[in-house]
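Page header: ASSEMBLY MODEL / four components / 700 residues total.
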Amino acid sequence: MANIQDVADAAGVSTASVSRFLAGQKVRTADAIRAAIKALDYTPSTIARSLKTGRHNAIGVVVPDITNPFFAGLVRGIEDQARVKGYDVILGNSDESPTQEEALVQALIKRVDGLIVAPIIEEDQSILSLSKTSVPVVLVDRSVTSTNYDSVLVDNIGGITLAVDHLVALGHTQIAFISGPFTSTPGRARHTGYVIASAARNLDHHPEFVIEGDFREESGDAAMRQLWNLPNRPTAVVVANNLMTIGALKALRELDVAVPAQMSIVGFDDLSFAELLQPPLTVIARGDNDQGSRAATLLFGRIQGTRTRSGEVMTLPVQLIVRKSTAAPLATTSGTPISSATTPKETTAL
Amino acid sequence: MANIQDVADAAGVSTASVSRFLAGQKVRTADAIRAAIKALDYTPSTIARSLKTGRHNAIGVVVPDITNPFFAGLVRGIEDQARVKGYDVILGNSDESPTQEEALVQALIKRVDGLIVAPIIEEDQSILSLSKTSVPVVLVDRSVTSTNYDSVLVDNIGGITLAVDHLVALGHTQIAFISGPFTSTPGRARHTGYVIASAARNLDHHPEFVIEGDFREESGDAAMRQLWNLPNRPTAVVVANNLMTIGALKALRELDVAVPAQMSIVGFDDLSFAELLQPPLTVIARGDNDQGSRAATLLFGRIQGTRTRSGEVMTLPVQLIVRKSTAAPLATTSGTPISSATTPKETTAL
DNA sequence: TTGAAAGCGCTAACAG
DNA sequence: CTGTTAGCGCTTTCAA
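Prediction written out in full:
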C-alpha cells in the first residue's frame, strides 16, 4: 500500500502538501497530487491519522441485544446518522449483563469518539466511571442515577398509564403487570407507572399481580403462567416490553386461554407484525428509529463541540395503539365474590 | 492519559520492558511495572498498537438491514464469536443498495482485519475488487459470481423444494412464488428451486405466478395483491423471505382472504413469533445465529492464518416447519376451466 | 533478559 | 502557499 510519502515523491511535493490537499486546502500542485494519488491508488491510513489527531471517526453503541426488534431499530437510527457524519459504528451486545457491559464499555472507550449506551442497571459503575473520561456519552432507553448524562428516554409512566386507563375504561379492575428488572430504568419507571395509575383508578392492591421479569421472552412466559395459576387471577395484564409480551402470548396459547375473552393483554413497544398476531396486539408504541437518531444527534453535538455541556434529557412521547388483544372482562370472572365461586355445591344444597 | 513512557519512568525501566510485560513475556521487573500500571491507571493505546502492528482487532460486517430479524440473528452470532477472540465488530447497513454497500466496504476495508458481507448482487464490483486486497473476506447468505470467496450459504433449492413438495402433497397444483431479486443469490437460487420443484411435480407453468420482489415488506404486500387479482389465481404461495412474507400476510388480511382456506402460504426463514401469527406460519427455517458464527469462524481462521486458502463454501441445511398456514386447497377453486368461470352470462343464455 | 533507537503513516506547528 | 520537522504511542530489531 502506497503511503503519503510515495504520493509526495510521485507528485514532486512534500508530504505536507499532500496532507493539505487531502484536507481540502488550496494547493498549487493539486493536479499533480491528484494524479499521483490515482496512479498509486492511494488511500490515507485512518490509523495513522487517528494516532496523530486523537480522533477515531467511530462511535460505540452498546445495547442489551440487537436481536430485540426495538434495539435493532434503535441501532439502525443511530447508524444512519453516523454514516451521514462519516462515522463508523462499533456494536456491542451486553446481553443484560452488567459485567459484560462493563467489559464492552472499557474496550470501546479507547477506540471511539463517543458512546451511546443503554445501561443494564441504574447503579451502573462502568457508566458512572465514564464521567471521568473525556469521551462524550449519551444514554438511551435506560438511564443511571446521575444527572450528568445526556439521555433520550421515553415517557414510561405516561405509557403505562395509557395502558391501565384503557383497560379500566374497558371495565377491568383486576389488572396485573409483568415488569422488567426494578434495577433498570424502564423496569422501575414502568412499574412506577403501574402503581401510580392503579392508585389513581382506585384499583385494589394485589402484590401478587406484579411479577418482575428480566425483559426476555422466557420470563414473560413464566410470569404469565404464574399469573394464570393465581387462585384469584387477573382479567388483564400489561407487559413491560416486547420480548416478554411474546413470551406471555406463547404461555397463554399453551394454556389454552382465550385472548382477550379470558385475558386482555397490552404490550410495551410495537412490533412490525403486531397486527398479524392472534389476536392483533394492543400496544404502547414509540419510535425506535427516531429514538436512535435523536441519541446520535445529541452525541454528535458533543463530539463536534456544538454542545459543550451534558445533562440534557429528552423524554419522547408514546402512544397507545388499540388492536384486538384487549376487551371487556367476562362478566363472571371478577365481580363475583371469591367465596361463592369456590363454595362446594354440597354446601348450597343444604 | 498515561502512556507507556510514563509507566516505564515510574517503574524505572525502559518502554521496551513495559511492552514486553504487556505482551506476556517474562520480565524481571514485572512487579514494579504492574504497580506503575495500576498507579497510573494505564491502558495501552490500541491505535498506536495498530499503527505499529498493522492489526486492528476489529472486523466489519455489512448486511442489508439489521432490522430484519434474520440479519439481527446473524450479526449476533458473529458478534459473539468476535468478542471471544477479542475483536470488535463494525456494523454497516447497505439497505439493499449496491452503491451504499460499495461505500461501506471501501470505508471499512481500511480499519478492519476481516470482512463479513452479505452482497446485494452477485455481480458485485465492490466485492469482486476486494480480492485484490489482503483483507480476508467471507460472504454470508449471499454470494458473488466468483469461486474464490469463503462463503456460508444455505440450501436454498432444497428449502424451496421442501415447501413446494409439502404444498403438492396437500393437493395444490396452482402454486405461486414471490421471489427476491434475481440479481441476488437467494433471489436467484430460491427461484431456481421453485422452477425445478415445479417441473419435478409436473405443475403447469404459469409465468404470471412468479413475481420478483425486493425482499422488503412492501414488495411482498404488492406481489400478494397482484397474485390475488389474477383471473386464474393460485391456491398457494411460497414467499422467498421473512419480510415479504409479513407483507403478503398483511395484504391477505386486508383483502380479507382466509389463510389457509383460500390461500396457503409458506415463508422462508422462521421468526420467533411465527407460531403466534394468525394463522401460525409454515416456514422453511435455518439457524441465523449459527450461520453467523460459522461465517465468523471461517473468517478468524483466515485472519489468524489457520486457513491460508479461501474458496471454502459451506451450505447449511434448512428445515420445513409445518404450522397452520398451509392446508388442502378448496375443491372448487382451481379445477374448473377458466372459460366457464369468465364467460359472460349472456353468452350462455343464447 | 534488557535498553536504545528506529519507524509505522500521518498532521500541524513553524519558518520561509 | 510551501517544505521541514517533530512527534502521536507503541513494537521490535539490534546490541549489549
